[in-house]
Amino acid sequence: MSSKTNTTTLSNEAVKEFLGSYHAPIRVSGIASSGYPIICSLWFEYVDDVIWCATQKNSNIAKLFADNPNCAFELSPNDPPYFGVRGQGRVSLQTENADELLERLIDKYLETRESGLAKYLLSRVEGEVAIRITPENFFTWDYRERMQK
């Protein structure tokens, strides 16, 4: 993990382990042309220090990142004890292998390609784009020990 800033209560290895094993969607924000941030929850995978998401090429979040590649993100459970990872990074949009990424995300989050949602998503695969987030900064918090006392 190479980051410019790592203000963290977790070690780099713990951050990598968390990102690699976290199963809920990531919250990603970008800056709209209005100057206001937009937040979107997306399925993701973390591979080789990169966060990968998939979306449709014509989605609002894809258009937003095409105009401005800066983003922020957060991964954290909603239930106590609270801990997680926030960060900032740069986005690039890629069509190559977006179909394979979508299949992996369906396998991770739906665990089957036979559900109605999986079939629907796969029926639109030609319109998919991969969102490649290269993290530049990480900020973590971990209140697990404090909250369990």
Give a written overview of the molecule:
With 149 residues, this protein is of the alpha+beta class. It has one domain: Pnp Oxidase, Chain A. Strands 1, 2, 3, 4, 5, 6, 7 and 8 form an 8-stranded mixed sheet that branches.
Compact summary:
The protein is an alpha+beta fold and about 150 residues long.
CATH topology: Pnp Oxidase, Chain A
CATH architecture verdict: Roll
Low-confidence stretches: 1-6
Overall geometry: globular
Largest sheet: 8 strands, mixed
The class by helix and strand makeup works out as alpha+beta
How many angstroms separate the termini?
A: 32 Å
Order of helices and strands: EHEEEEHEEHHEH
CATH class: Mainly Beta
Quaternary = single chain
Specify the helix fraction band.
Answer: 25-40%
When the domains are counted, the total is: 1
Strand content: 35-45%
